[in-house]
Design goal:
Elements: E1 4-6, H1 30-44, H2 53-67, H3 76-83, H4 89-94, H5 99-125, E2 134-136, H6 148-172, H7 198-212, H8 217-233, H9 237-252, E3 257-259, H10 261-272, E4 276-277, E5 280-285, E6 288-294, H11 299-303, E7 311-317, E8 323-324, H12 330-337, E9 344-350, E10 361-366, E11 368-369, E12 378-387, E13 390-398, H13 406-410, H14 419-432, E14 437-441, H15 450-458, E15 464-471, E16 474-480, E17 491-495, H16 502-512, E18 517-520, E19 529-535, E20 542-551, E21 567-568, H17 603-618, H18 622-639, E22 642-644, H19 647-658, H20 681-698, H21 700-707
Parallel strand pairs: 13-14, 14-17, 17-18, 18-21
Antiparallel strand pairs: 1-19, 2-22, 3-20, 4-11, 5-6, 6-7, 7-8, 7-9, 9-10, 12-13, 15-16, 15-20, 19-20
Helix pairs in contact: 1-9, 2-9, 5-6, 5-8, 6-8, 6-19, 7-8, 14-15, 15-16, 17-20, 20-21
């Protein structure tokens, strides 16, 4: 069995938008695939949990939650009936029996037909949009309806929510009324993204899209539900199998997964780095395709309008009408977004700041190949004004990815492009500029090559351990063996919630050695695991399993907790559902034995003084204070689980949410200042902190006084 190991940046359910061809369909050996998965999970996964009742009941909850996440279709009686089998599903799976999945789907389709009739009746009756009432759109912790009366009341409010949202969109955003959707409105099968045949639905949507702009709110909503019903009727067994088997693997951890043959093809293209598209990593979320990360140097990252947390709900090719991708399987949605180089794709996007789902923006992007040089490390010299005509030269290296040209390296090409080679060159160039301090910016760096992370860490320390890797058969310490130190001066490392995997390894190592001051969000992403892809055979798909974990040289894991900065300057990412700790069944943080290494002296007494000086500066920074106010409003939005069903309230909320769209990771906008560099207050403050650090390190007496 050929096994491939992947050091993923984020969950590899997130696939890059790149070109591919449709697989030819053939019959799946469901029984054999199911048995193979059932017996492989306990053996090959890192934590080796037995396939028992615990796995069975949790897989049951995940599967039911994936096909009815809003708890709106099934009744309590359905769930009670299903629950009778919940403790024995693992036994059936070992026999290759997935009849429970088919049974649950059949009941779901019966309930969907019933609700379609209710939708038509309710839309005919209409709604009173002046009544003060609320709709609980986040029903993750809600109960299933006990009876038909509760069911009908839930759906009345649900439909009224869609109706009010449609009216808001029509009034405030008349230029794009054809792509509106509502969080909690048409997302009843939120995670059932693998349940549609694009050949069937896409044709129907192309025919109907031109008509939607002229529809009344009632007609628009009814058409959406008809489309949704068509989507569910197009369900195929491959997608049912993937959803069901993934429910078992996801109990082990959120990065383990069963990948159907179609999904494997997309994963293979990802690993080959044949990146032609918009350059984004996606994950299914509430029936949409959620932006997890923008690929450095890609069209979306360079354009700047798409952000992590945005949700794509429709796709148009150039000037053609948009095609809704709601509830599409992710790999099929990805294929629609991909296309020929230099062609235009228009995305209909719900902004990350809009929790009600009322607003939709259209973003047009030209598809391009993501080239290695576009994501290469860059440097610049910043001159910090210290007053009285005195300036201080500081170097900044921005590293968006831990890249390496593996193809060239495998051919022993000495000129193969590598992140470590580029960073070494940039450090030397900056030192020739006589910089006094260095900032290494790892914000939004989702990871990449582990070898490159180790090599770059070694540029700033003498030889020693960098990271520990724990597998089922033991722990391996991976060192930097080169005693050469390229730069030994004052240093800052910038991170945020999107700094993951290899970024966390580098930041953790430099923090443990007390070699650099880490600055950023309350923590980094927290992905401290390694996945291995295990092919199951021709047309059987693959298992993607977590088989190893990363640990700091101080013994603590980078899993879940990530790296906590020495100085916290929060961004908007801290209030969003971004990070390992937002994922269900994430592996816990734990510790192993500490490696042998020597810390640098002095940081313990320096950092408190740096924090004090930074807080004093930021307390007088108006841009920063304005940003914190916006961030607090965004936090309130994310913590609010209900939405008003009164039209006047919703109009006011939609207007207020517009102001949150300009929040960018690490950037605080000043409308009167056109200097792009000055907008990045976190970088600006980091330069001041670095200057403070230089003063303290240059004056041994000052350090002694701080510690006294």
């Amino acid at each position: 069995m050929r096994i491939r190991t992947t050091l993923s940046t984020l969950s590899l359910l997130a696939l890059p938008l790149i070109g591919t061809a449709e697989l030819e369909k053939s019959e799946l050996d469901v029984k054999k695939i199911s048995r193979t998965v059932a017996y492989s999970l306990p053996v090959f996964h890192l934590n080796q949990l037995p396939m028992d009742t615990h796995i069975s009941t949790n897989a049951f909850n995940l599967f039911i939650g994936s096909i009815d996440p809003s708890k709106s279709y099934f009744l309590r009686s359905d769930i009670d009936r299903f629950t009778e089998k919940s403790e024995s599903l693992h036994k059936l799976l070992r026999k290759g029996d997935i009849s429970f999945a088919r049974e649950a789907y059949d009941i779901l389709m019966e309930r969907l037909a019933n609700r379609m009739e209710f939708v038509e009746r309710q839309l005919e009756e209409g709604f009173d949009v002046e009544i003060e009432e609320e709709f609980l759109w986040d029903r993750k912790d809600a109960a299933w309806p006990n009876d038909e009366a509760e069911w009908d009341d839930l759906w009345r409010k649900r439909l009224k929510n869609e109706y009010v949202a449609r009216m808001v969109t029509t009034e405030l955003y008349p230029v794009e009324p054809d792509t509106n959707t509502v969080a909690g409105a048409t997302n009843s099968l939120a995670e059932a993204t693998e349940t549609v045949d694009t050949n069937t639905v896409a044709a129907a949507e192309y025919d109907e899209a031109a008509e939607t702009a002229d529809l009344s709110p009632e007609e628009f909503i009814l058409e959406r539900y008809k489309q949704f019903q068509l989507t569910m009727e197009s369900f195929d067994e491959e997608m049912l199998l993937q959803r069901y088997l993934s429910s078992f693997s996801l109990v082990y951890d959120p990065h383990s997964d069963y990948m159907s043959p179609s999904s494997v093809e997309d994963f293979d293209i990802n690993m080959k780095l044949s990146l032609v598209g918009i350059g984004a990593m996606l994950r299914p979320d509430d029936g949409s395709a959620k932006i997890v990360r923008l690929i450095p140097g890609g069209p979306a990252e360079r354009d700047g309008r798409l952000k992590a947390g945005d949700k794509i709900i429709a796709v148009a090719q150039g000037d053609e009408e948009p095609v809704s991708i709601l509830h599409w399987p992710l790999y099929k949605a990805v294929r629609l977004i991909r296309g020929e180089k230099e062609s235009t794709v228009v995305l209909s996007v719900i902004p990350a700041s809009d929790r009600s789902g009322t607003r939709v923006k259209k973003i047009d992007l030209v598809r391009e190949e993501v080239k290695l040089e576009d994501s290469a490390a860059k440097s610049e010299v910043k001159e910090l004004d210290l007053g009285d005509g005195v300036t201080r030269k500081l170097g900044v290296i921005t590293l968006p990815d831990f890249y390496a040209d593996f193809s060239a390296a495998s051919k022993n090409d000495k000129d193969a492009r590598r992140a470590s080679t580029d960073v070494r060159r940039l450090v030397r160039e900056l030192m020739n500029e006589n910089i006094e301090g260095l900032v290494l910016d790892l914000r939004n760096n989702g990871g990449g090559s582990l070898v490159e992370a180790i090599e770059i860490s070694g540029l700033f320390i003498s030889s020693g351990p960098i990271v520990q890797v724990k597998e089922r058969n033991g722990v391996q310490v991976l060192p930097d063996a080169d005693p050469t130190v390229e730069y030994d001066g004052p240093m800052i490392v910038l991170v945020n919630r999107l700094s993951a995997s290899a970024s966390e390894i580098l930041a953790a190592a430099l923090q443990d050695y007390k070699r650099a001051v880490i600055i950023g969000d309350s923590q980094t992403h927290g992905k401290g695991t390694v996945q291995t892809l295990m092919p199951l055979g021709d047309r059987k798909g693959s298992l993607k399993l977590t088989t190893a974990g990363f640990y700091r040289i101080n013994g603590g894991s980078t899993q879940l907790k990530g790296v906590t900065p020495d100085i916290i300057i929060p961004s908007y990412l801290d209030v969003m559902d971004i990070g390992e700790d937002s994922l269900e069944h994430a592996l816990p943080w734990d510790t192993i034995r500490r490696a042998i290494y020597r810390e640098r002296d002095g940081f313990a007494v320096v950092v408190p003084k740096l924090i004090e000086q930074s807080e004093e500066r930021l307390s007088e920074n108006e841009e920063y204070k304005n940003y914190l106010a916006k961030r607090e409003r965004l936090k309130e939005r994310y913590e609010t689980k209900t939405v008003s069903l009164a039209l006047s309230d919703r109009l006011a909320e939609a207007e207020a949410e517009k102001e949150l769209d300009d929040i960018q990771s690490g950037a605080f906008l000043d409308d009167e200042d056109e200097d792009a560099d000055s907008k990045d207050v976190i970088l600006g403050e980091s330069l001041h902190i670095l200057s403070d650090l230089i003063e303290l390190e240059n004056d041994a007496g000052a350090i002694a006084r701080v510690g006294s």
